[in-house]
Amino acid sequence: MNKPEKTIKQVCKVINVKGLHARAAAQIVTLSSRYQCELTLTHKTKSASSLSLIKLLTLDAPKGSQIEIVAKGKHVKDASNSIKQLFSSGFGELES
Q1: Positive/negative CA dihedral, 37, 24, 18, 57
Q2: One-character DSSP codes across 23-81
Q3: Which one of 2, 49, 53, 61 has the fewest beta carbons within 10 angstroms of its own beta carbon?
Q4: What backbone torsions phi and psi does residue 85 show, to the nearest 5 degrees?
Q5: How high is the pLDDT of residue 89?
Q6: In this model, does residue 95 exceed pLDDT 90?
Q7: Using 50, 70 and 90 to split pLDDT, how confident is the model at 3?
Q8: pLDDT tens per residue across span 47-93
Q9: Mean pLDDT (the chain, rounded)
Q10: Long-range contacts for 8-11 (Cβ within 8 Å, ≥24 apart)?
Q11: What does pTM read for this prediction?
């Protein structure tokens, strides 16, 4: 009997000034490719795979946006923690 896939949902806030732009989206793609799970990001009515740079950019998520992240698969806990840290660090763009 197969075990059901694990799923974790969380909401992260975009806190960097430039929002979810190309460099930030590229960091999401790079991070996501490390895990055996599917991450889907949703902003308002638009959703995107965390592995698609172009789709992530179409989310149109400026500073202050709430992003729902759903992780499904094998490494959901590690992937969820890593992506949460990426958002909370402002993608390395926070001013000191």
Answers
A1: negative
A2: HHHHHHHHHHTTSSEEEEEEETTEEEETT-HHHHHTT---TT-EEEEEEEETTHHHHHH
A3: 2
A4: -65, -40
A5: 97
A6: no
A7: low
A8: 999 999 999 999 999 999 999 999 999 999 999 999 999 999 999 99
A9: 94
A10: 8/70, 8/71, 8/76, 8/77, 8/80, 9/68, 9/69, 9/70, 9/71, 10/68, 10/69, 10/80, 10/84, 11/66, 11/67, 11/68, 11/69
A11: 0.92
**What tokens appear for 33 in the block?**
């490719």
Euclidean distance between CA atoms 43 and 78, whole angstroms: 22
Give the long-range contacts of residues 49-55, CB within 8 A, separation 24 or more: 50/83, 53/22, 53/25, 53/26, 53/29
Name every residue whose Cβ is closer than 8 Å to that of residue 24 and which is 6 or more positions away in sequence: 16, 18, 91, 93
